[in-house]
């Protein structure tokens, strides 16, 4: 079972939100790794299932969904030496049994991963970066942002995982447009109407060291 940055990037490979460089890197490894291809098939099947059954209970908000996922992960997480890969965790969440998520909540989780790719299609071709998957860089300065977007510079604690970062960003309906930098900073774009609420919400998170609005992205190195 894969539990490395490449395998953990497969959901975003499926939903089309990785940069061209990231997709090319994963495609090369898929050609030579049958186990990784099995992982990819698993995520593609989940994506197809979500598209067919995309309606989740209306009383389940995104913030509540993400919070419950984190809470159940903390409660059920095995010791470090016994930690499962992302696919196994998700399989446990989507299965049956009293300790697993209800079907509506499982559907909402799939919406987070799959619809992130659909939402991305309406935005410019920004290049999200991932720790351990691609070289550290920022988005080229000429890349235009939607007129109704605002930029935030967010510094996360070094112990924050890539998955935790993406969950925090998803809570604010944001997306990565640059980073990580040398100081652990990411640059996020959020809808203009949510910039104040997103800033306040991120400041309250223990995983966030600092958050501030910025006017422009730094030039790539």
Provide a brief overview of the structure.
The protein has 221 residues and is α+β, with helices and mostly antiparallel strands. It has helices at 5-8, 10-14, 20-32, 34-52, 62-76, 86-94, 103-120, 162-171, 195-203; strands at 149-156, 175-178, 185-191, 208-214. It has a four-stranded antiparallel beta sheet with strand order 2-3-1-4, covered by helices on one side.
Oligomer: single chain
Which range best describes the helical content: under 10%, 10-25%, 25-40%, 40-55%, 55-70% or over 70%? 40-55%
Radius of gyration (CA) equals 17 Å
Q: Characterize the largest beta sheet: strand count, sense, and whether it forms a barrel.
A: 4 strands, antiparallel
Number of strands: 4
**Average pLDDT for all residues:** 69
Number of domains: 2
Using the alpha-carbon principal axes, give the shape: globular
Could you give the order of strands across the largest sheet?
A: 2-3-1-4
SSE series: HHHHHHHEHEEHE
- N-to-C CA distance: 36 Å
Low-confidence stretches: 54-59, 80-84, 95-104, 115-143
| Number of H- or I-type helical stretches | 9
Strand content: 5-15%
Structural class by sheet pairing and helices: alpha+beta
Write the layout of secondary structure elements.
Elements: H1 5-8, H2 10-14, H3 20-32, H4 34-52, H5 62-76, H6 86-94, H7 103-120, E1 149-156, H8 162-171, E2 175-178, E3 185-191, H9 195-203, E4 208-214
Antiparallel strand pairs: 1-3, 1-4, 2-3
Helix pairs in contact: 3-4, 4-7, 5-7
Characterization of the model:
This protein has 9 helices and 4 strands; from the N terminus they run αααααααβαββαβ. It is of the alpha+beta class and 221 residues long. It has 2 domains: 5-120, no CATH class; 124-221, 2-Layer Sandwich (Alpha-Beta Plaits), CATH 3.30.70.80. It has a 4-stranded antiparallel β-sheet with strand order 2-3-1-4, covered by helices on one side. Helix 3 (20-32) crosses helix 4, helix 4 (34-52) crosses helix 7 and helix 5 crosses helix 7. Residues 54-59, 80-84, 95-104 and 115-143 have low confidence and may be disordered.
């Amino acid at each position: 079972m894969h539990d490395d940055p490449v395998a953990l990037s497969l959901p975003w490979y499926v939903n089309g939100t990785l940069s061209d460089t990231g997709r090319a890197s994963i495609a090369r490894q898929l050609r030579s790794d049958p186990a990784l291809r099995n992982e990819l098939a698993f995520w593609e099947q989940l994506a197809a299932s979500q598209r067919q059954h995309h309606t989740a209970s209306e009383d389940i908000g995104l913030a509540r969904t993400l919070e419950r996922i984190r809470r159940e992960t903390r409660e059920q997480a095995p010791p470090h030496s016994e930690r499962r890969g992302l696919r196994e965790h998700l399989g446990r969440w989507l299965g049956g049994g009293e300790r697993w998520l209800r079907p509506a909540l499982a559907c909402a989780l799939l919406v987070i991963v799959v619809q992130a790719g659909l939402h991305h299609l309406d935005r410019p071709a920004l290049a999200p970066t991932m720790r351990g998957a691609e070289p550290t860089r920022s988005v080229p300065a000429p890349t235009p942002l939607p007129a109704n977007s605002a930029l935030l510079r967010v510094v996360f604690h070094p112990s924050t995982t890539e998955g935790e970062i993406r969950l925090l960003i998803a809570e604010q309906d944001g997306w990565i447009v640059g980073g990580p930098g040398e100081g652990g900073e990411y640059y996020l774009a959020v809808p203009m109407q949510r910039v104040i609420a997103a800033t306040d919400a991120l400041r309250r998170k223990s995983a966030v060291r600092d958050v501030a609005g910025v006017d422009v992205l730094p030039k790539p190195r």
